[in-house]
Amino acid sequence: MTSLPFDIQIRAAALADLDACAEIYKACQDEIFPGCPGAWTRDSFARATAGEEVLVAAASDDGGRSIVGFLSLWRADAFVHFLHVRADRRRRGVGRALLEAALATLPGSAELKCAIDNRDALAFYAHLGWVETERETGGSEPFVRLHYASRVAAASEARGYQASGD
Ligand SMILES: CC(C)(COP(=O)(O)OP(=O)(O)OC[C@H]1O[C@@H](n2cnc3c(N)ncnc32)[C@H](O)[C@@H]1OP(=O)(O)O)[C@@H](O)C(=O)NCCC(=O)NCCS
């Protein structure tokens, strides 16, 4: 388990955090989808996260509480939509901290989609116990669907498989 080398707080996003989140979103989306430069804007961030809960990771080690990452969650489907960490703060436990904070608020399993070419993110999710359930290669943005089962949800899913004889 990574220990965070800087003081960090995971909390619900405030209105004042949204510009910083949008900047991280723009940079990360450009990385993930290099073929669409400039497609990601403050407005597309607002549209894409409308109705979602946004958690931020705020660090206090650089002269103020700056946002170093965020996660957005569509709670009705337990669907993690975006998980983005600023490039200069990766591999220090921020992504894990955001994901664990979101999962702790969900009663059971969770889902997400990840671009097939995003190998770093797929390795990160596999390391944290997410498993591939579907691979969609037909569209313009091929993706992998991943599933996470909390210990309680995993036990009850296993009981379900036994009961159905699978
Ligand atoms: C994917 C991403 C969110 C990971 O965040 P992060 O803060 O760098 O990851 P963490 O430091 O919390 O890593 C948690 C664990 O995963 C491991 N891990 C992280 N990246 C990994 C990689 N590329 N390969 C293998 N393991 C990895 C870490 O070693 C760590 O292990 P530990 O806790 O057992 O020590 C971040 O790289 C990112 O924002 N990428 C760009 C945007 C993106 O692709 N988002 C996902 C879209 S689906």
Which key features would you list for this structure?
about 30% strand; Aminopeptidase; single chain; alpha+beta; about 170 residues; binds coenzyme A; 7 strands; about 35% helix; 5 helices; seven-stranded mixed β-sheet
Ligand species? coenzyme A
Widest beta sheet: strand line-up? 1-2-3-4-5-7-6
CATH architecture of the largest domain: 3-Layer(aba) Sandwich
Tell the overall outline. globular
**Helical/strand content category:** alpha+beta
Can you lay out the helices and strands and say which pair or pack?
Elements lengths: L7 E5 L5 H15 L9 H7 L4 E7 L6 E9 L4 E7 L8 H10 L6 E6 L3 H9 L3 E6 L6 E6 L2 H14 L2
Parallel strand pairs: 4-5
Antiparallel strand pairs: 1-2, 2-3, 3-4, 5-7, 6-7
Structural features, described:
With 166 residues, this protein is of the alpha+beta class. A 7-stranded mixed β-sheet has the order 1-2-3-4-5-7-6, with helices on both faces. A hairpin with a 4-residue loop joins strand 3 (66-74) and strand 4 (79-85). It has 5 helices and 7 strands, in the order E-H-H-E-E-E-H-E-H-E-E-H. The protein folds into 2 domains: 1-106, Aminopeptidase; 107-166, no CATH class. The N and C termini lie far apart (34 Å). The mean pLDDT is 90. The structure holds coenzyme A. Coenzyme A binds next to helix 1, strand 4, helix 3 and helix 4.
